[in-house]
């Protein structure tokens, strides 16, 4: 006797699937335009057109351009800090390798992506749009500083790093990464091949130079 094959549940209507994908599509379109044109010059009509929706549809998800920008930052950078904190907390190697791993990971997951242009945007337009600069400070800069501070404190607690003013030491590690972002989005297009920078080699060089001053030396 033939047993009928159970029928599969119907797929979600295409329109419903499309609706669920719209916020992500709008965020992707907004990120590309913000990095390409800046915050001030980007119009919501352009974002909607690039995402293939109307301006009215965009406002259903994001009431203002500022809200859209915040969603971009949270989706691409700020929302990932809990994941990164857990990952670094489970790291088994020494603190020098943890610093190197953290900087490599940040470059691979942010620096090599379109989200790397957000830092340049904020620095360029902070005086004109202090509200987005304040948001970026609270959502990205402060958590990033805290994460690096915890890595350095780990090294001190384990006897690998000497005592140091941690808040300033954090800037020593952040500064090379900001330089890389500025170079990528400002100088790379016009620099001759002989002056191009390999990011991972640059990071390794900076780690070696900076941490040589942080390592605890035997008396």
UniProtKB/TrEMBL annotation:
InterPro entries, alphabetized: Homeodomain-like_sf, HTH-type_TetR-like_transc_reg, HTH_TetR, Tet_transcr_reg_TetR-rel_C_sf, TetR_C
The keyword DNA-binding is assigned to this record: yes
UniProt key word Aminoacyl-tRNA synthetase: no
Domain HTH tetR-type residues, every copy: 20-80
Keyword annotations: DNA-binding, Transcription, Transcription regulation
DNA-binding segment(s): 43-62
Coiled-coil ranges (or none): none
Pfam family, one: TetR_C_11
MF terms (GO), sorted A to Z: DNA-binding transcription factor activity; transcription cis-regulatory region binding
PANTHER family referenced in this protein's UniProt entry, alphabetically: HTH-TYPE TRANSCRIPTIONAL REGULATOR BETI, HTH-TYPE TRANSCRIPTIONAL REGULATOR RUTR
Protein name, per record: Transcriptional regulator, TetR family
Organism: Hydrogenophaga intermedia
UniProt lineage: Bacteria, Pseudomonadati, Pseudomonadota, Betaproteobacteria, Burkholderiales
């Amino acid at each position: 006797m033939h047993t009928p094959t159970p029928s599969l549940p119907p797929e979600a209507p295409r329109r419903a699937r499309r609706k669920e994908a719209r916020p992500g599509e709008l965020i992707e379109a907004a990120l590309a335009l913000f990095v390409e044109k800046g915050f001030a010059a980007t119009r919501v009509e352009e974002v909607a057109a690039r995402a293939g929706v109307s301006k009215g549809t965009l406002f259903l998800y994001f009431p203002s351009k500022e809200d859209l920008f915040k969603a971009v930052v949270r989706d691409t950078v700020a929302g990932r800090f809990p994941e990164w904190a857990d990952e670094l907390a489970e790291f088994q190697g020494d603190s020098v390798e943890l610093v190197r791993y953290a900087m490599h990971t940040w470059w691979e997951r942010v620096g090599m992506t379109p989200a790397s242009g957000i830092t340049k945007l904020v620095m360029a337009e902070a005086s004109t749009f202090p509200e987005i600069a304040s948001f970026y400070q609270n959502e990205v800069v402060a958590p990033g500083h805290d994460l690096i501070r915890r890595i350095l404190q780990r090294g001190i607690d384990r006897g690998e790093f000497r005592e140091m003013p941690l808040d300033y030491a954090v800037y020593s590690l952040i500064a090379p990464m900001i330089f890389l972002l500025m170079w990528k989005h400002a100088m790379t297009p016009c620099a001759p091949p002989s002056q191009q920078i390999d990011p991972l080699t640059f990071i390794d060089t900076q780690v070696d130079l900076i941490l040589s001053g942080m390592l605890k030396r035997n008396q």
